[in-house]
Design brief:
Number of strands: 15
Strand content: 5-15%
Low-confidence stretches: 1-45
Strand order of the largest sheet: 1-2-3-4-7-9-12-13
Bound molecules: 6-O-phosphono-beta-D-glucopyranose
Helix content: 25-40%
Shape: globular
Structural class: alpha/beta
Largest sheet: 8 strands, parallel, barrel
Amino acid sequence: MSQTPAAAALSRRRFLQSSALATGALVAAPAVHGATPAPAPTGAGADCTHFPANFMWGAATSSYQIEGAAEIDGRKPSIWDTFARTPGKVHNGDTGDVAIDHYHRFREDVKLMADLGVKHYRFSIAWPRVIPDGRGALNAKGVDFYKRLLDALQEHGIEPAVTLYHWDLPQTLQDEYRGWEDRRIVDDFTAYAEAMGKALGDRVPRWFTLNEVSTFAMIGYGVGYPGHHAPGVELPDRAALHRGIFHAVLAHGRGVQALRATCKADAQIGIAENYHAYAPIIETEEHIAAAHRAFALDEANASIIMPILTGRYNPEWVEKMNGAAPQATDAELKDIGTPIDILGFNCYHGGYAQAADNAAGFDVVPTPRAFPRMNISWLTVTPEAIYWGIRQIADVAGQPDLPIVISENGCADAAEANSAGLVRDIDRIMYLRQYLGYVQRAVREGYSIAGYFPWSLADNFEWAEGYAKRFGMVHVDFETQKRTPKLSYHWFQEVIRQRRVV
Ligand code: BG6
């Protein structure tokens, strides 16, 4: 078994903010009022324990992680095929060639979602499946796969939420001009968005342009060392990194415009980003202000979600970057800030900030050695991040009414199956319960939070970790492709049924 850079000491998320435990205790789930829940009221903030009736419960996946069928029906390689097939890049030499064979088993997977009770499903389109060389003619067979999937979802009353780019860039565009490093990616992504809007826009009510710019940029590219996600490129300096990020946020803005022009008038269009949330170390005015400043000046937030939501770069951050921040014209800023209708917040963990008597006015508190973590080294248990991340969009980005959905939240488990074959992943249940408790707090306080999509429906190809890390609520035997719901699946089923944290 080869030890990859990702599996080694380098943490998958080491670029992200450090975090620390504010208090020893995790938040408890809201109190249960007897065995049978009281009828739940409608409307955000209307009740202390229940989620509103129109709250969106969903499941989430992405193309390369689940589809397989890498060379079927005209699909060409993506940068992830190339990266995974390069020895030493992915744990155990695993690839997404077969993954969980969702391409052939999607009906079974949709049935699992229907039984779970979700009414929403977030999946991504594999760009090299529908436009194999990244630009040019549509591959009808590739598009047909997504039409069949949409049909299956419709049969079960499940609404699709489609991500255009969850990291599987057509390899041709990487070979031709180095992908996100080159400005030409903006036009190619926009044309791809337009093509998908035309092909599927009459059937898809929700769209996300890109998934986690901060991850695919800051981990796909390393500054002074090779990135340990595809394309695994080494950049000379941070200015080069921020040029790539600039191309991504501009592609997002133009992609929103292209979708808007081609989709149903009431389609909700946005981005799914794992922006970095900061919780105040203690909830007092001064520490809340410190957390908000940490949020605004965080390198990923200041270069991605803040310009997207405000149409500008924070001058204080630009100055701090000392020449590495991107240069943008007014017209480009306007495109980057194209209004969106929905924001996907992928929340795994966050940082803790404290007011400090220094020039910045805050300190990000480092993570103590024994801080609680899940079964993947970077994943500290910081459930407050989900509440503060929702709130910071209102308080810092100035978008209190923008509907937010938690487009990802989850963890790798370390649970074993019992004699009956049930994986009792109480580690995942503990994790999700804590985070969902804080989503509930945001609902209760009237923040604009509209839905929750745990990551992930089923175990899948976990990027540089290969198949070694399992993020699913459904267990997959990767040899036989047998799917078996875990205990967390049954837990989430009950959350949805009762509309509260159970
Ligand atoms: C998110 C991605 O970063 O986190 C998912 O959008 C991914 O695709 C999930 O599976 C889990 O994180 P990691 O670091 O294990 O890939």
